[in-house]
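Changelog excerpt

This revision adds worked examples to the README so contributors can see how folded entries look when concatenated. The first example is reproduced verbatim below.
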Amino acid sequence: MGLNDKPSSERVHIGFFGIRNSGKSSLVNAVTGQNLSVVSDVLGTTTDPVEKNMELLPVGPVVISDTPGIDDDGELGLLRVNQTKKVINKTDIAVIVADAQKGITDKESSLIDIFKDKEIPFITVYNKSDLLADIPEAKQNEIYVSAKNGTNIYELKNLIGELSKHSDTDRRIIGDMLKEGDRVILVVPIDSAAPKGRLILPQQQTIRDILDAGAIASVTRDTELKEAFSMLAKQPKIVITDSQVFGRVAKETPDEVLLTSFSILFARYKGNLSQVVKGAAALGKLKDGDIVLISEGCTHHRQCNDIGTVKLPGWINDYTGKNIGFEYTSGGDFPDDLSKYSLIVHCGGCMLNEREMKYRLRHAEDCGVPMTNYGIAIAQMHGILKRSLSPFPEIAAEFDL
């Protein structure tokens, strides 16, 4: 996978924020070296967040987001501000763009408070410095630039690069649990919901992480799992399965072989595995009339037997024996108000970056709404939750499973 093929969820997300006419769009264009955003002296020219996947030196693969002014007003303006707030939830590095002549206003100060509260590293950029008679000395993580004549644009990119180094992590999907030569079986069902001619992103990423660890990956459909076991001269260390066939795979996997699912691995990789395991207990407490939110981080064409809108609701109704209501969100949509939900069941989040996934988990926790994910919920309903957590005995012990 080349740098330009790196999925958005694995890139550094850099957001440009500020009030209208501070020169955000001009600065984005100067930093990227592209006409990414429309530039105008008219207030509110940027009406929706503009995102671009690109290679930005010295950072590497990034997602650049140009946002509407945080001071936009009126009915439409408030909608634009809400879109800007959604961008904040997935921003790894924030660039606050202020007019050098006006300095920091109350609006930029409110942004700074948000970034501090969410622990998002940020840079304060005073744009239009070419209009100043004297340029003040910049403080730490501050810089005076001119998008118009290119002053300090190179220095700003280096400053972004320095912050990106601090945001890097050594997170692994599974590679930290493997040693060279370990065998891993990945179970990938091919049904009407499977994309034609390719594997889905979490499967691709998991295979790559296995290979990076020097381990050996064997991929099979659930219908050929028994044959796959018989063909291996050495017992696999772990079986990783698509959650939809958890029950069948658990029956055919020897007890001494570790078993888990892609979505459980991604809960550990991007979120809080302990929190989503705890959330699964809410399945047994649902009552008639309760509403469950099923949320996916991606958008795709719904199939006739879609896991999120068909299979999971069916399993939950069968498991609880109750009359449960269901609501659905996908992509970047995640409700601010969660008060009507008794439980949130989220996908593995392969299309969301770590920061946005953790925001959703934290938001649910702050609202007092339990949240679990597809793999954990399915394992709970099939009575194999402890088995599916065998690679993570400390989590199973935490909840006395």
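The second example, added in the same revision:
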Amino acid sequence: MKERINELKKAFCEAKSDKDRDIVDTKMQELIHENPDQFADAMVESAKETADRVTELVLKQKMQDVIPAISLVYIAKTYFNKSDTWLYQRINGNVVNGKPAHFTSQEIETLKFALTDISEKLGSLSISL
């Protein structure tokens, strides 16, 4: 069910006219009537995946200006015990093993913690002459 919904979401996004969108809407209505409970579960899961993707895109946008100033190698090794390549793949959403790499919810929390921790360390730094 989820795969069929994702196909219809893609078709809706690629639709060039109202007629094309109406066709997708009709097919979506057919799925609803086919199995309402399964449809609802699949839509909830799809919505969660979309929300996670939005979080990743917002994170990437926010980090864009900061990335040149911080060491992603340090963050990857210190906070994730992973390589910088692993971290870059997730930040950029690169395709790995045929699927886009993304952060899990826990990894997003770890990244937030890492950035906050580094920010606090920099904020507490003082140099006196």
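Reviewer comment on example two: Residues 1-62 form one domain. The chain has a mean pLDDT of 89.
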